[in-house]
Amino acid sequence: MFVEATVSVVNLSPCFALNSGYKHRFSRVSVRCIGTAADSSIVESADSVRVSGRSSNKKVVSLNDVGSNALDDKSRWKEEKLETLWDDGFGTQTVKDYLDISEDIIKPDGGPPRWFCPVVADGNDNPIPNSPVLLYLPDLVIFVEETLRFEHALFPSRPIYVVGDSFGGCLALAVAARNPAIDLVVILANPATSFDRSQLQPILPILEVMPDTLHVTIPYLLSFVMGDPIKMAMVDSESSSIPNLEKLSANLTSMLPRLSSLSDIIPKATLIWKLKLLKSAAAYANSRLHAVKAEVLLLASGKDNMLPSKDEAKRLSRTLQNCKVCYYKDNGHTILLEDGLNLLTVIKGTCKYRRTWKHDFINDYLPPSMSEYRNGLQTNGPVMLSTLEDGRIVRGLSGVPDDGPVLLVGYHMLLGLELASLIIEFVREKNVVVRGIAHPELFTENSKSDLPEFSNLDLMKVYGALPVTPTNLFKLFSSKSFGLLYPGGAREALHRKGEEYKLFWPDQPEFVRMAAKFGATIVPFGVIGEDDVAELVIDYDDIMKIPVLNNYIRKSNEEAVRLRTEMDGEIANQQLYFPGLLPKVPGRFYYLFGKPIQTAGMEKKLKERENAKELYNEIKSEVEKSMAYLIKKREGDPYRGIVTRVVSQPLSTPVHQVPTFEH
């Protein structure tokens, strides 16, 4: 979905060399799962590069090769979509691979600097049509500007993604300031705009007087401030809560000796020049921050021993006009080389992925990849039941239609605790992403924290959450998607003590009529289990009795996005707050999806408000019946408690196969 390239001022190995007629200073390279539609016009090269024993054919292009065919490629594009749980290749390349490739890159071939991508590409390199280009920056302004302007001239309606870490962050900001008319999404990873306050300042005078024989020690000194070697070695070690210790040890053992090659990659004279360049670049970028109009996503590490990135993130978020921060408290300076951070996941979770001037929650959505599925949302072994056409209740989701448009309508548990299990089970069993229609406040940029961390709320966006609007619901039905709607909204998810499993639905059957317009299938469902996970001890009424907190809650809600403002009474009372909870030893969540309700052919009938209201009340009644059934039946579940489930079942038993009550 991107074409990725990096730029370097060093000469590249012959495998990246262009033909002798090449006149320009950059080339295009496509990689697996990363590309743009412009790649359909590029010229294939017989050159290939070896990475970790695997070969990857590279493609290059010159400006002379780009003509009307490149600009007319739209006529040849075919409709393409990523499958759910597609392979994004995350974690397959390690720091060792990066250092090995660097040794080849520094071998001179007499050519000019150019764009290259040292990522292994296997199989089909075809990109998704209309994908934006992504450029990763370690180097120089004019060179980058030429590429940006060329890309913008080819596809002026698409954004260009510019990723810069450390020095590259200064470069990205400088280029953005000089090109305010180009639609840029600038991603900064611990940018070196804080150089004047960094640990690098004292190194420069030491280097200038250091004997050449001692320069070999510099890479080891720098390695202590660059980043966490353990996190770097954990890449490709089957990342999980329990990493593969044997693989981790092997990666660490193979990586550390390669640090000595840094003295060859960055000789003493080059390192001194780079530090002086870094100082100049930081000053240049800082003097032009006011001119940056681009959308900025800033990744900041809490354990950056090279730069004061935490404080710098606060400063830049206040200075830049459109800047969102993601804070990673346990990462070091080389955050993009460390395990656990998938840059594409961050871009998706912060709603920064777009193909035109404005983010579209439907057309720009990319389904979760396999790595996101493995490392993402966690569940507690839920019980999923569904209802067949003949009324029989069965284990699993076979009673839910396989094809959309489908609208799941149900009860919203306290704090939306049911969401993760529901979404993950649909992905696992039906290979379907359920698009949750959520409160718009979850998508606002005005975070209450100066340094917000990437959280489960962001992961929900990766798994398809989108703001509740009539337009988004319309687009979901149009695209034959699976949607998830909670008529009770925030009032239900933030209920008071004693209100668990009580519906707070407004008298508004509009979603029924819209579903009928597209012939969507409505599936009512009930879910229980919040009382087996936590006890609500401080609710909204309790908080509003506390003088200091009640003023804070009132002010926060005045500034928040408000829904149903035209209503009166209980339904309109959707005050946002965070309740006080007392955790319990986890129990189990139970879901029952009722018999699907077909609306195909009912559009004319449901245009009449009374008919729509009648079906609306039927859906509500089915949700209540489902919850009553589950509350009664769970009493007979011998595996309701987590202790019983863990002790009584073999470790090899998947959580979705743990037995439950008879149904």
From TrEMBL:
Residues 153-338 form the Serine aminopeptidase S33 domain. GO terms for biological process: triglyceride biosynthetic process. One of its GO terms (molecular function) is diacylglycerol O-acyltransferase activity. SUPFAM superfamilies: alpha/beta-Hydrolases. The keyword Disulfide bond does not apply. GO terms for cellular component: membrane. Pfam families: DAGAT, Hydrolase_4. Keywords: Acyltransferase, Transferase. Belongs to the diacylglycerol acyltransferase family. This is Diacylglycerol acyltransferase. It comes from Cynara cardunculus var. scolymus.
